[in-house]
Amino acid sequence: MSEPLRTVNVGLIGLGTVGGGVARLIKSHHDEYLAAYGIDLKLTRACALAWEQAEAAGIEREAFTSDWHDVVTDPAVDIVVELIGGEHPATEIFTTAFENGKHVVSANKALLGRHVETLAEKARACGVQIKCEASCGGGIPIVSTLEHDLVGNKILTIAGILNGTTNYILSRMDAEGADYADVLADAQAKGYAEADPSADVDGFDAASKTAILASIGFGTRVTTDDVYQQGIRTIGAEDIAQARELGYTIKLLGIARNTDAGVDVRVHPTLIPADHMLAKVNGAMNAVYVVGDAVGETMFYGAGAGSFPTASAVVGDILSLSEQISRGVVPLPEIEPYGHNLAFKPMDELQTKYYVRLKVADRVGALSETVDIFAKHNISISLINQVEDGKSGVSDACSVIFLTHRALEKDVQAAAAELASVDCVAEVANVLRIEDVEAWTEGVMAN
Amino acid sequence: MSEPLRTVNVGLIGLGTVGGGVARLIKSHHDEYLAAYGIDLKLTRACALAWEQAEAAGIEREAFTSDWHDVVTDPAVDIVVELIGGEHPATEIFTTAFENGKHVVSANKALLGRHVETLAEKARACGVQIKCEASCGGGIPIVSTLEHDLVGNKILTIAGILNGTTNYILSRMDAEGADYADVLADAQAKGYAEADPSADVDGFDAASKTAILASIGFGTRVTTDDVYQQGIRTIGAEDIAQARELGYTIKLLGIARNTDAGVDVRVHPTLIPADHMLAKVNGAMNAVYVVGDAVGETMFYGAGAGSFPTASAVVGDILSLSEQISRGVVPLPEIEPYGHNLAFKPMDELQTKYYVRLKVADRVGALSETVDIFAKHNISISLINQVEDGKSGVSDACSVIFLTHRALEKDVQAAAAELASVDCVAEVANVLRIEDVEAWTEGVMAN
């Protein structure tokens, strides 16, 4: 080893699932990092609420503190790793660390989804970096891919299975013909889903990640609030079965498109062709499909959560910073990364095909009334299919699936509202989008 | 834009499919790179055998030369891009460029597959870098992923569909039930396969890429010569059909495993479970499946060839070097990257299940004789299936498929040799490995 070795001091805040994994990974791989990269990585400070947590993660007694200020102000610390999540005190940890000249590695999608731009500006002003590979897609190196590897491209589309819990639920519903509530209950019993599952099943988690990936991929300002959001609670076994019969798979996708009509960002259950690569991603695994104008279609697949997969991303960021620090080179702040200020395409203006499931009154003329309402809103129907479900919950109504031709979101929502208000419709059970995956590759350069 | 802008001068050698794509990508995206990264990327010199080639790629007259020495010795050039392929004069281009203080970006898998270590040493001695993202997997950012993003892991397994031509042929054989020769002829007619297809169908191309990825992923010396190599010429429609019936898909895989028994590197047609992510990669697309001990299973999917996909990788490398050059920071040479000097596991010692197709004489006792030969070589058979193919080419013989239990490569090859020599066997049509994909994730850290 001819390079000078240097100790890089890490200050770790948060010793939960991910933080504990990071501590254990750094400890078990210390000698390998030293041999391979010349980096003597030390967990110099570690902060958790209780010593027991730190002890379980193998932290030395003298490194432990329960006050995060001790970590971010410690002159020895080169890199602060924030793994507590949430907005506060994470924001204060970031800014105090920056002011003390420390780089920050974080997996905090909630914070970065809302404030990546202002935090990046602050880091830039202080001459330090934020690295957030672990905030999206767990162990999948997707942030780095967008930030570095695909920079020769204009990124046209990002479409991701970004939440393992919902993909696990939808995959099991598909494999077993099971109902949402039953699979969710089982997933909760097994620890795959939280007691309060809303961050996952209502799409918040995926929306934060979609915002971060769109910001980085498109080089523009996208926050979680810009992302249209619809969850999977209304998806039933009959929807999955119907979709499959029509050649589709239902996935909760975070979709970001960089179109001439503006940036289109949304999270919702989506019908995609069953032979699309994203449709083949099952269980709790994540995948991010990216289209660049030069590279064309790509997909990046891996574990989106879990202690060691996420720790892999965190430690990758730490080592990336360390390789520069260890040679005395100050890591370069990125050039103003969100400079494009692209306009958004309003959700109302989305045009695609739709899958609508209604509970229609079981009487003559009811179906014809519903079709009239679609027509009144400029929506033309390509298929109507009455579903035998035997458990519609409304004894004098039956489930009917409508597939539309290409229609305008605004019109479909207006039609859905009117359908919900008329006597012949007992329930508008689902309004789902059938994604035009062909459009995802529009703008790819012809070879 | 508050950062100082700087012109980065690129010298491009080779203006074929990839070189032409690089020239056109740099030209069409010049303003975008300037706006987004502050880099004024200039194609200062470009070398091709004929001016017409350069003109077609949009090269300025004054930048053109037909002598590569003009490019590597031009004091203005910061980065040399070598896209001519082959060993000579590519080797001289690399070394002269290094001696002139220039970084080299290359897609030259043949050269790097044999000499990546010595070239990297030379670059290191000259204080410059080699970037070779485009040498493996075309547009898929797999080199960077192994070099940077997954550095927190011990890489356990790399298994890739690294050759688009063979995946296209195998996918079409699978979809259409077609024979190898027919699909190859059609692929040649359409320009998907070369007139002399041996580099693709015999596995040379995949072997070079496997060597490069294993070198980088495991941090050890692996050259193309270390990679066991078997192509797809012997695969027939009946093999594909039989495999499918047994729940497998046949893919030409480049497999590299970092095991306690040594590094195991090989390219061969492989039976993998039909529900494995690699089995779902169809057509000319490539994918690299990587297992790290922390991150677990990952897969990276995209176009493995083509003008703009490969140019995406080349320009990604150019911009990565440029971001450092443009701020006056000399890109850091990597720490001795192939320092592990791991031992190889001899191919003879491979242990897995096998798929063997024999043409067995159509007479009483013939089958029993073959089974005896397997038994004599310590190979136990799990399934025997006589195939009705109607076109075996040997009128008094029939195709019989044997699946083995776990056996030793050495024993299987010895049995195959003996089977080939006995009267009751007309032909040993195929000896294929059924990959133990469960073993690929052995050593992953438990969450």
TrEMBL record, chains A, B:
TM segment ranges: none
GO biological process: methionine biosynthetic process; threonine biosynthetic process
Pathway(s) where this gene product acts: Amino-acid biosynthesis; L-methionine biosynthesis via de novo pathway; L-homoserine from L-aspartate: step 3/3; Amino-acid biosynthesis; L-threonine biosynthesis; L-threonine from L-aspartate: step 3/5
UniProt cross-references to InterPro entries, sorted A to Z: ACT-like_dom_sf, ACT_dom, Asp/hSer_DH_NAD-bd, HDH, HDH_cat, HDH_CS, NAD(P)-bd_dom_sf
Protein name: Homoserine dehydrogenase
Listed SUPFAM superfamilies: ACT-like, Glyceraldehyde-3-phosphate dehydrogenase-like, C-terminal domain, NAD(P)-binding Rossmann-fold domains
Superkingdom, taxonomy of origin: Bacteria
Binding residues for L-homoserine: E194
Similarity comment: Belongs to the homoserine dehydrogenase family.
Catalysis performed (reactions): L-homoserine + NADP(+) = L-aspartate 4-semialdehyde + NADPH + H(+); L-homoserine + NAD(+) = L-aspartate 4-semialdehyde + NADH + H(+)
Location of the active site: K209 (proton donor)
Keyword Magnesium: no
NCBIfam families: PRK06349.1
Binding of NADP(+), residues: I13, G14, L15, G16, T17, V18, G19, G20
EC number: 1.1.1.3
Function (record text): Catalyzes the conversion of L-aspartate-beta-semialdehyde (L-Asa) to L-homoserine (L-Hse), the third step in the biosynthesis of threonine and methionine from aspartate.
Enzyme class: oxidoreductase
Gene Ontology MF term list: homoserine dehydrogenase activity; NADP binding
Record-annotated ACT domain positions: 355-433
Cofactor(s) this protein cannot do without: a metal cation
UniProt organism field: Collinsella aerofaciens (strain ATCC 25986 / DSM 3979 / JCM 10188 / KCTC 3647 / NCTC 11838 / VPI 1003)
Sequence positions that bind NADPH: K109
Keyword entries, A-Z: Amino-acid biosynthesis, Methionine biosynthesis, NADP, Oxidoreductase, Sodium, Threonine biosynthesis
